[in-house]
Fold this sequence. Notes:
The complex is a heterodimer of chains A (276) and B (600). Chain A is of the alpha/beta class and 276 residues long. Helix content of chain A is 38%, strand content 24%. In chain A, the strands form three sheets. Chain A has a six-stranded parallel sheet with strand order 2-9-1-10-11-12, sandwiched between helices. A four-stranded mixed sheet of chain A has the order 3-6-7-8, with helices on one face. The interface between A and B is large, with 36 and 40 residues.
Amino acid sequence: MSSLMMVGASSAAGKSTVCAMLCRLMRRRGMDVVPYKTLNLSLNSFVDRDGGEMGMSQAFQAWACGLEPDCRMNPVLIKPHAEGRMQTVIAGRVADGSGLRERAFAEAMGCFRSLSDEHQHIVVEGSGSAAEINLRHSDIANMRTARATASPVVIVGDIDSGGVFAGIYGTYMLLPEEDRALVKGFIINRFRGDASILDAALRRIEEETGMRCFGVMPYLPFRLPSEDSLDMGAPGELEGEDVRGAWMDNLDRLADEAERSLDVDGLLSLMKDSTA
Amino acid sequence: MQWVKEEVRDELKSGHRGPDESCQYHPCHFDGQDCSWCFCPFYPCHRPELGATVVSKRSGEPVWSCVDCEFLHRQDVSRAARELIRGEGIEDPDDPRLAGIFDELIARFNTRAKALMVLGATSDAGKSIVATALCRVLSDMGYAVAPFKSQNMSLNSFVTRGGDEISRAQHLQALAARMEPDHHVNPILLKPKGDAVSQVVVEGRPYADHDVRSYYEEFVPGEGTAVMRRNIEYLMRKNDYVVMEGAGSPAEINIYHCDIANMGAAKAAGADCILVVNIEKGGAFAYAYGTIMLMPEEDRSMVKGILINNMRGDASCLDEGIKELEGRLGVPVLGVLPHLDLKLPKEDSLGCRDIDGEGAVVAVIRLPRLSNFTDFDALELEGANVRFVDDPAELSDADMAVIPGSKNTIGDLEWLKGKGFPEKLRELKGKVPILGICGGYQMMGDRIDDPLAVEGPAPSSTEGIGLLRLSTVFDSREKSTVQVEGEAPGGGRLRGYEIHMGRSDRHGHAPLFRLKNGDGWRDEGCLDEEMMLMGSYVHGLFDLPAFRAFALSMAGKGPKDGEGDDHDDSVEEGLDRLAEAFRAAVDEDALLGGMLGALR
């Protein structure tokens, strides 16, 4: 088994999409790959065949892998409802009581292990930003998951909203040293225009952090199922009869672009090196 | 130069003159200039900030030149000079006491403002709203404040009283600062035209078209930098504070050396900088840390504080993170601003937001290059439900359909046709009111001719939607930018502004508005009451209650109560609430003591 994890410099950096793309690319190469995300904070959920509730983005990533969605792919789902109250779903079912966080993490690692028994490769997605220093001790979804699963980590940054170099550099620098050792590189997402104007800046971030840039993804207006309520009503094309088919067509178009814009072989070799 | 002496002698004996509108050269310096001292009684002063020694073309000798000096043309300076000269009873231009009077005027008036620069870690950090809050807070303290943003990319522009085009955000900040905005507050405006090209508006007027590369390689190092510097200088001389706003992120290290919007401007003004980060999008600590650490060391020391913006819920959960950030950077976090729901105009087209009212459903077509969507903010005052739609089917249950302004009428008309909007609009004709504004108005006509390729890459002639008997031609590159005032249908007051290229000829329709035109009136727009069709070039047409009432009553849903509110009042209320929230959230000692403390 081997795994690779994508974390975000901000919440809507495009982690889910990059993970779905990677799942799709690996599937197209005939690889046995499964998606995984410890924790989703979302109201957009899906129900698997056995009635287990899970995040929509992992369901979508499962389809990208040619798999049936399974709530083990997203063992913890937190659904905010009125006034700061949250409903916690663990392994597909609503959970309550005390000590939820540690219970959830233990359960999540169990799910990860059982997926790794069944599949060769796991594409892991982080949650929100990986460097929320105020949450360092309570965050189970990002570096704690990376450490526990020994996954190499790539940071995804959204250039469309500005400040991406600062976001990626800051995310790396604010991580404790032991975590930094797991972080191998970064991807710039949603760029509009001629990417060559970024070259000098990318080299500088590589030099200052020792991370590697795995590419610059262009901004493409193809709509995918959105997990994040911030994206609601985002513009983009979607065509066809069955929306799942339409999403998958769009994902294939993104994956085609990723073959051109990202160092896919480099990303896959990161994964190979992690083989336990 | 004896004749100059005689002119000065006359001036010394005369009274205060104010602006001399009768002079053929007026205004030779600026609108509202004082003309009492057309010839300076203190010439030559040899103060380097007011003039320079040049070589005379005529004599070849060095001579003191102060053609651009505005000091004595300021009303306050001019009046004080008159008082002092009267007080001493000076009538002779060679009187040695004039030198002492000049020194006193310099000491009293030739001061430079303190500048603050509000930077953002990302584009949507909330720079603009923080700068707006600072303008109001400082104005409330009794200071003369001006906003400034050297370069703005936005399609939401505003036209000043002088006919200059500036961004909406700086207009709002000027309102917050209680100053009359002119082009100095936003001397460079970039209006995206599509295909990565922007129209560059300099000091209120169209200057040139540039793509990203030519903008940074040609415009910025030359004219751009000069424009930024001279407008900062102008505002610094006239105010106690200049509240500057950066653009995007200051840590775009690929364009750092040619960035005149962020640290370039801050350095020109010697500004203290505050960095704003948006906590809602995640990664705020990382972005704050990265932004400051990626700056060169000498710039880093100009950043005096960090503001965390847009916090929902209890801010104390950030304490641990704030402490660590402060420790690592040595820069204090000045406060945590809560998420505020303020009814203030937005600038960025990404912020075009639906308004969830219970009243009339107003469907605004979301054109790809939609401009001036702030036109619809005022409908919130009537409880309207404003939706931005991109599918003709979404017009079906609307009480009113609007085709808004566009930066590219012909391109967006093609988009509209591709989507099937014209058929839907023709189907709705006579059933619900249809309003076209500016570019949308042009689209409602029969034809749009562009013989000079003003809009597109080649000359073209395009069929319109055909709702109005109207033809538009882009027969010149001239851009019309003007504030207007007049009457809405029924006679109520109307106020707004026009920004467009091209002119439209109306064939047979009644006009929608009557606008003041010099001493008389002119007709503007089209109105077909029976078919409920309306079109106009006027932006801001909903700002005052009269036209809102007219349009919404046509939609079968009158305003929520008899008397509509003035949009201006609600903006004022929003600004005061914002300043209040800012004062409550920000550590005033840190901000006011440390940063604003250097008061004269």
